[in-house]
Each structure stands twice: as C-alpha cells, then as structure tokens.
Design a protein that fits this description.
By secondary structure, the chain is mainly beta. It has two helices and 29 strands. The protein has a domain of 30 residues. A 16-stranded antiparallel sheet has the order 1-2-3-4-5-6-7-8-9-10-11-12-13-14-15-16, with no helix packed on it. β23 and β24 form a beta hairpin.
Length: 357
C-alpha cells in the first residue's frame, strides 16, 4: 500500500517538473526575436513582474521587458536577483544606471543618468542615494550628499550654493549656513530635522541681524525677492501660534492674522481684502474657513458655517443688515466676491455648487 502511494507521488512530482520546464522553454520556442538577442548560456529562466530574466546560475544574465522584448538590464545575478555589477537601460536603450547591486537593489558605488547625462555619482544603500554628488542635466553641481553623518552642500539649478553644513540621516542636523539671492548669507546657526532651530537671520537689503530661536519664538519669513511673507510665532521649525501673513511680492499688505497649527491656519483668525478691508473673521481648520462672519464692503453679508470655504449653513444679510434668506447644507441664493471686493457670481447654490442664472 505504501509503495503504491510513494510511486504515485513521484509520478506527479516528475510530471509537475516536466510542465514547469516546458513553461520555461516556451519563451524561447515562440519568441524568435528574443532568441536572436541571447548570447549567454541559458541555465535559468525566470518570469518576474512582467519581465523575462535569463541568467546563468550565480553568474551573468539579462532582463527584458515582457511585452516588447527590450533589454532593461544586463549584469551579475545571484539566485535570480541582481547581485554585483550591472547596467540598467530605459526602453529606448539609454543607460540609466550602472553600478553595484545587492539582493536586487542598488547597493554600493554607482552612477545614474538622464537622457545620457550624468545626474548622480556616489554610493547607494537599499536602493536609495546615500553619499555622492547630484548634477543638473546641464552639468551643474546641485548637491553634495552625505546621508549618514557629515558635512554636505546643496546648490540651486544654476550651480549657486544654497546650503552648507551638517547632515544626519539625510537631513540637516547641526551647524549650517543657508544662502539666498546668488550667494547672500541669509541664515547661520543650527538645524534640527531639516528645520532651522536657532541662529542668526540676516534681513534682506539691510545690515540687520536678528537672533532667532526657531524651536520656539518669534521670526520673520521672506520670499525670494526679499518681501516679508510671515511674521509671528514658530515651534519645531514651522508656524505655530499667533502670526501674520502678508501678500506675496508686497511684504506690507496684511492678508491674514490669527492662529496657526503646524504651518496652517487653524483656530481664530481674520482675513482681509487687497484694499485692507476685513473680509472674514472666525475660525479656521487646516487652512479652511470653518465658521464665522463674511463681510462685503465693510458690511456683514453672511454668518454661519462653511464647508471647504463654501457657505454652507447660515444667514445671508442685505446691505441694511436685514436677513434675506438662509442657506441650509449649501442650498440657497448667494453672491460671491473676489479679493478686490468685486462681484463675480450671483445665483443659487445646490449642495455647495453653483447653479447659474
């Protein structure tokens, strides 16, 4: 009885092996184009994530796209995985990477290309850039990476130095200097997890130097043209607490004052038109109006709740302060104005969307 079961098992096992071998050879049997491309001794064959991998055991191999037979890798393998030196190509035949692999991922020294232009040269770990130099497609040095611990430099696309200082785990940590406006020193001090922590801030177009504690304290932020963008409290390197936002490319026109949480308008605040008049006062949640009062030409126009900045539930007033109708879940008559206090829509809402007259 046992011998019969044993014999039946081996017959099925051999049959399974035979079917698998036939499936492996099917690629070569029916794909003449791929047969003509192969110049290695076929010992192993693997179909993986839509690609064909044909390799010598623990030696060299090639990988092709399954739907168009384009060569996308050639190099060393170990048990069917990229392991050792190799080259990776795009579907046009351009090399996109050459270097070392370990267990299928980029590990060790390597070079990365874009349209045959070198964009990175250095070391990799688990498929990610670890240490080296990044370049633009024009050959300008963009970044000197040190993703472990050490000194690094970062450049803008034109080759101007933007940052030099210490890194830890790929982020700015420790002492550093930040530059703007073609080499002008903007900040010098300490960083924590890629954010300014404390140091000296140089105001643009002046010789004024401000001592700042960015982990908790008051700061001023400027745009690339030197205009004031934000003035207020910081915590953990981002807007937290009370502050003011100003119109970009102006630096004097106040557009918002109120509370912030993790860099976004959150809590009580006021919003202003470009003419300086109050447009909204109330509460915000993650940059969206939540509930409050909306003003037009200095007069109350709506009071109630908002949904993604759309009037949702509340009362609508005329110019004399009389209630003319109510919105219920975004349904009813409305008027919409732009930041210059000009009427841009008059009609009805249905579920918070316009129905044009």
């Amino acid at each position: 009885m046992f011998e019969n079961i044993k014999s039946l098992y081996f017959i099925k096992f051999k049959l399974f092996i035979k079917i698998e071998e036939q499936l492996k050879l099917k690629l070569l049997k029916y794909n003449k184009n791929l047969q003509n491309k192969l110049d290695i001794n076929i010992i192993n064959y693997k179909y993986y994530t839509g690609n064909y991998i044909i390799y010598e055991s623990n030696k060299r191999g090639k990988e092709y796209k399954g739907y168009n037979d384009k060569l996308i890798y050639e190099g060393e393998y170990l048990k069917g995985e990229r392991n050792g030196k190799g080259k990776e190509y795009d579907e046009l035949g351009n090399i996109i990477f050459e270097g070392e692999y370990l267990k299928g991922k980029r590990n060790g020294k390597g070079k990365e290309y874009f349209k045959n232009k070198l964009i990175f040269e250095g070391e990799y770990l688990n498929g990610k850039e670890l240490k080296g130099k990044k370049y633009s497609i024009y050959g300008n040095l963009l970044d000197e990476l040190n993703r472990i611990n050490g000194i690094g430099k970062q450049y803008d696309p034109y080759g101007n130095l933007e940052f030099e200082g210490e890194y830890l785990n790929g982020k700015r940590n420790g002492k550093g200097k930040e530059y703007k406006y073609y080499g002008r020193l903007e900040f010098e001090g300490e960083y924590l997890n890629d954010n300014k922590y404390k140091g000296k801030l140089n105001e643009p177009y002046t010789n004024k130097v401000i001592e700042q504690t960015y982990s908790k304290g008051l700061i001023k932020e400027y745009d690339t043209s030197g205009y004031l963008k934000y003035e207020g409290e910081y915590l953990n390197g981002i807007k937290n607490g009370k502050g003011k936002e100003f119109e970009i490319f102006d630096g004097k026109l106040l557009v918002y004052e109120g509370e912030f949480l993790n860099g976004k308008r959150n809590g009580k605040g006021k919003e202003y038109f470009q003419n300086g008049k109050l447009i909204f006062e109330g509460e915000y949640l993650y940059n969206f109006r939540l509930k409050g009062k909306l003003y037009i030409k200095g007069k109350l126009e709506f009071e109630g709740e908002f949904l993604y900045n759309k009037k949702w539930n509340g009362k609508v007033y005329d110019e004399n302060g009389n209630i003319i109708y109510e919105l219920i879940k975004g349904n009813g008559k409305v008027k919409e104005y732009n930041k210059s206090d000009q009427l841009i829509f008059e009609g009805e809402y249905l579920n918070g969307c316009y129905i044009y007259w």
